[in-house]
Amino acid sequence: MDIVLGLQWGDEGKGKFIDLISEDYDIVARFNGGANAGHSIERKGKRITLKSLPSGIFIEGIQNVIGTGMVVDPVNFKQEVLNLKSFDESIQVEEYVVISQKAHLVLPVYKLMDIFMEENPFYTTVGTTKNGIGPTYANKALRQNVRVGDMYASDFKARVHHILEREYNLLISYGQTLPPFETMEEEFFDAVDFLKRFKFIDSEMFLNNSLSGGKKILAEGAQAAMLDIDHGTYPHVTSSTTLSAGACSGLGISPKKVGEIYGVTKAYCTRVGNGIFPTEIFDELGGEIRSRGNEFGSNTGRPRRIGWLDLPALKYAVMINGVTQLVLTKADILSGLRSVAVCTHYESDGKKTEMISGLFSNDQVRSVLKWMKGWSTDISDLKESSHLPAELIDFLTFLEKELAIPVSYLSTGPGREQIIKMH
Length: 423
Ligand code: GDP
What we know:
Blueprint: E1 2-6, H1 14-21, E2 27-30, E3 39-43, E4 46-50, E5 63-66, E6 71-72, H2 74-87, H3 93-96, E7 97-100, E8 104-105, H4 108-119, H5 133-141, H6 156-173, H7 181-195, E9 199-201, H8 203-212, E10 217-220, H9 244-251, E11 261-266, E12 268-271, H10 284-292, E13 305-310, H11 311-321, E14 325-329, E15 339-348, E16 351-353, E17 366-373, H12 390-403, E18 407-411, E19 419-421
Parallel strand pairs: 1-10, 1-11, 2-5, 2-10, 5-7, 6-8, 7-9, 11-14, 13-15, 14-18
Antiparallel strand pairs: 3-4, 12-13, 15-16, 15-17, 18-19
Bound molecules: guanosine-5'-diphosphate.
Guanosine-5'-diphosphate (GDP) is lined by residues 6, 10-16, 38-40, 42, 298, 329-330, 332-333, 411-414.
């Protein structure tokens, strides 16, 4: 099994890369998160954002798996499937996707809870997508939730009704104004009926048997290393394990079976919402990169914060994931800048450090930048690494030396064909 992961704060362009390399695999399996992901993919000049569906969905013959580590929102999922069908009616979604029986269900009250927690001053504002993902994982950990496989249990409706009523009444007792209970419940059960068009499987058995039978699996990560629940910039993180270890636990595959680990990073940094961001650019250049790079959340439309490439954070992400190959995206967005910067260290309380993990709660941290000559050539149509401008080659060589892994792919634009295999 190979793995593709984001190394920053998400939105690195994982979807495009997975869509591209998935042709070499038999199975693409998502292992974490849910409809809080937003993998934008361009196909035939049109763009679609996948939320819960794996990015191998466009290719006939690939089995896409919604793994055990994911949380499935039937209402959102139904909408996503219908959108995909209208995007490209040739995609046989019900055939191309199977769902783990052990994946947890996102109930509509969890979305209401998410909104309440994000908007109520008694809670930390995390900057979630308000899709109910955090409360679902919390209820999973509390062992209060229902799973995909429970949908066929005779008491499924009664169990769901009980949870909906409990959480709904709790929110009412907090003085919340909520949508009508009956409508919410009806919409959910309608969507559950739709979800039953899909095959629910014992995904651990399926995936391990597939590996034994010589099939190739690509594990697709959502969000990214710096948003990992344990190792990210807590509390402004996601609620699942985003790392390569999460691919093993979320899919039930032994670490011994892992081959390549592709880490995707932009040539600069972005982050949505609150939280430490040492390399943030506050002047108009940040705004320029934001509009050039269309750095607005694909799920929420929120403007992303912009920063220079953060090498200590990247080294940390490479280390905790065991990344073997780097995929660098969006270098085209920096084309034309006279100089570009990379953060090599941090400065905090007058001391230099490379250790981002010790600084997670310290918003006084400053980045120490190394400036490099920018590249003026438009790289978006280049197809060969030998045609790349010398300044960009210097930038890539510097990264390879610092990170001690190769930049294997250079993405030069949003299109499928805009990628250069470097090694
Ligand atoms: P993901 O969640 O990691 O898949 O990333 P998003 O889909 O949120 O954001 C990546 C966006 O950048 C998408 O709109 C991609 O089409 C686009 N993209 C990916 N790679 C490149 C690249 O190299 N250059 C440019 N300009 N856009 C890219």
